[in-house]
Amino acid sequence: MVLIPRGRVVVTFLSVFWICLVSWFEYFRFSHDGKQCPWPDSKFLPSSDSTVKPYHILVIADPQILDHRSYPERGFFLSWITRLIVTINMRKNWWVAKSKKPDAVIFLGDLLDGGRFDMSDSEYKSYVGQFNRIFQLDSSIPKYYIPGNHDTGLGIVEWFSPDRYDRYKSYFGELNYEVHVANHTLVFIDAPGWADEEHKMTVAKKTFKDWDPLPGGAIEFINNWKRTDNEPTILLSHIPLYRPDGNGCGRLRERGRIRPGGGLGYQNTLGKDGSEKLLTTLFPTLILSGDDHDYCYYRHFVPSVPENPNPGSAKEISVKSFSIAMGIKRPGFQLLSLAPTPLRNPDHKYKPNDDVPCFLPDQLGIYIRIYLPVFVLTVALVCMTNLCCWRSKASRRRHRLTRSQDYESGKLSRSPERRSSYLPSPVSATMDRNVKSSDKPPVWPKLFFCFYPRGTGRRHNACLNCLLDIRDIAIYPLAIFVIISYWFS
């Protein structure tokens, strides 16, 4: 019977364990989390016509594709590692989102982390190409974009490109527009442009009534907007609308709340008057925004105006960032279902639209709280196993030496039965010296001896075996990690 050494059993077990661990957290965990948020179609009126179905829209906020400008303080190598990890994770997130099979996709701004910076046309084209390679989608599925402050900038900053608006429009389309789909009106506005123009209006000490809108700007677009009868309106804005300081965002938010304020190149919310202008002009049933990176649920009060004497409310959802580099643990996206007219009920028992958030795995948490502790335990277990095996071999050698000396002195029987049972293998004087010198472990292992290959006839080295065992354990999980990452690319 062939006996497998105890150390190799431990190595095999740990290797299989790591294979299962990496496979689950790098692939199956993403698939599992993606299945936890189905499309919110249950609140729509059932229809006997199989051709009439809800219209499904996938909403993504703040992917902010990184480039070499994103983390200059980290140096070239750490910055490259950061971009690599974030890109691999975003490809997996997109695989989960795309598996929902949407009818359309909406990006709520901040498509590129450095899209507003001054760069050559060829560099910007390559930057946009990186975005398109990650978010590959069938050409039959429409994609809609709105600009964010990282795409076109906000305020006047010297390192912003003077061509940032023209570049954005040449690759992603218009800044302000509307789309009619599934008997809904989707209104897309340039929120950074709106905030800039509202600031100019405030400096000029004017109101929306006496302000002459900038040609082609967001305010001019809203002033000229006409409502389509019997169509619910959904507002898409990169920057959240104003809300009083101190109001929370619901239990799904990771931390903090959205507070009015701003800084160099950003603004937390739109102005109070500008937000009221949007609410009283559009009367949206739903507002979807980004920029904050975390999930936030808020309900706005819509005051009465002559066009709509009945006050009401509008729900705003700030969608989670799609990237793990935006200061949140779990990135995510939003699923929006629109009900065509046949799926609505006249008494409003059933909603004309509904949405649900989808949260993705905490990739950094997997690396830090799963892989790192298990790696430390693996190394400790391998070292303990090799240390026990080293002491066991030294004890067996001492036992054989003692019996050999007893035999020579006549303490052991010379009968064939005893000889066959207890007689040790002959050892030379050289081997005796080696045994004596290896009975006691070294005071400290010299790193140089860790690189001796196995089977060279040198004395046993526990440090070497630890490294070789860790190599044997890691080779297959690392191969699976590389294969999964390559497959998502």
From TrEMBL:
Compartment list: Membrane
Membrane topology: Multi-pass membrane protein
Sorted UniProt keywords: Membrane, Transmembrane, Transmembrane helix
A Pfam family: Metallophos
UniProt cross-references to SUPFAM superfamilies, sorted A to Z: Metallo-dependent phosphatases
GO molecular function: hydrolase activity
PANTHER family from the UniProt entry: METALLO PHOSPHOESTERASE RELATED, METALLOPHOSPHOESTERASE, ISOFORM E
Protein name per UniProt: CDC1
Source organism (scientific name): Coprinopsis cinerea (strain Okayama-7 / 130 / ATCC MYA-4618 / FGSC 9003)
